Amino acid sequence: MDYILDHIGIAVRSIDDALPFYLTVLNGIVEDRYTSDAPGVEVHVAVVRTNDKVIELLSPTNKNSPMARFIKQRGKGVHHIAYRVDDLDEAIQEARKKGVRFLEDTLRTNTRGRKLIYVNPASTDGTLIELCSYPSQK
């Protein structure tokens, strides 16, 4: 199984306040911008590409969203690192055989067709890792 760095998710209070750095200093471009109001997600997203790297700026849609809780507990900054795999179900099975635990309630397909799940940070020594695949792009 190959794990390829897909993107880095960064928690911010306001996408509009954070964007200028990524656009003017890092010469990034906004590839996509959307809101996910799904329960347990509730986040505004700006997908920024800088050269061949992708950063997702993530801001809460409301004060009770998981992203708002994250910022309150840990502050702004890196929220997660995402690795792309060819087959998410296979990657989950392989990882489970190696003792990796997942945050089961995070398994979903987002509004842009990316299938994803988060690894339990207890399995990664504290780092939130997303595994993802793009079934519609096969």
TrEMBL record:
Keywords: Metal-binding
Coiled coil: none
CDD domains (UniProt xref): MMCE
InterPro entries reported in the protein's UniProt record: Glyas_Bleomycin-R_OHBP_Dase, MeMalonyl-CoA_epimerase, MMCE/EMCE_epimerase, VOC_core
Record-level Gene Ontology MF annotations: metal ion binding; methylmalonyl-CoA epimerase activity
GO biological-process terms attached to the record: L-methylmalonyl-CoA metabolic process
Domain of life: Bacteria
Positions of the VOC domain: 4-134
Family note: Belongs to the methylmalonyl-CoA epimerase family.
PANTHER family documented for this protein: METHYLMALONYL-COA EPIMERASE (PTHR43048), METHYLMALONYL-COA EPIMERASE, MITOCHONDRIAL (PTHR43048:SF3)
Protein name: VOC family protein
